[in-house]
Amino acid sequence: QVHSVESGGGLVQAGGSLRLSCDASGRSLSRFGMGWFRQAPGKERELVAAINWNIGSTYYADSVKGRFTISRDNANNTVYLQMNSLKPEDTAVYYCATNWGRLSESRDYNIWGQGTQVTVSS
Prior knowledge:
Elements lengths: L2 E5 L2 E4 L4 E8 L7 E7 L6 E6 L6 E3 L7 E6 L4 E6 L8 E8 L9 E3 L4 E6 L1
Parallel strand pairs: 2-11
Antiparallel strand pairs: 1-3, 3-8, 4-5, 4-9, 5-6, 7-8, 9-10, 9-11
């Protein structure tokens, strides 16, 4: 079983940046694709970024392309999400997840952690 801890969230003004981290324990993630999801109040959970296990390919939702960058450090079992040019509509709880199928398919993930809150003020 994987235990993941997301961190790095907080309150930031529009246009600002945050870097989220996902530290996993219990199992090596080096062979898994990883993704970041977000869920805002009253909205469905959305896959925003993903990266495959060997860092050969990535996926980004249209809403974050050009602003968010996903990366990973397999040696330290950590996945990151660098978020720049943040907008109020980016406000949500952000979760990391392990992928077991198609990188762009939100149903092919397992979410393990409690998430980290990101709030962007206008």
